[in-house]
Specification:
about 130 residues, Immunoglobulin-like, seven-stranded mixed sheet, three-stranded antiparallel sheet
Length: about 130
Amino acid sequence: MPRVFKPVDISQEEKELMKDYFDRHTPFIFCDDTVKKGEKIKVKVSMGDEYKHPDDYDHYISTIQLWNRETLMTQVHFTPGAFGNQPTHVEVDFYVAANVSMNLTAMAVCTKHGLWQSEEKYVKVTQD
């Protein structure tokens, strides 16, 4: 089992010292808090908030996954240079059907710094 990095596991002191490192490797989930049953929901996953991630041949974001609890819902793979070999905020929009309330988590793989997990995002599904 690979080691999973989560910002919540790091002390506040370490977060401040290495803010750019944690920011560029942490996936963030953006989506509506509530959706009607059966509707597709747009879920944006973005890498980093303030700092851009490199896109080098040996250091890039290779995979972003979207999980609902223990179920892998969807994923995308990138190749080195997919973003023109320029640092960027890697982003992807997933569209998934919401039939039950979800606890979404994003996972991302940096080829140099391993597997990173977002904070959980709860999405409530209503009947009407």
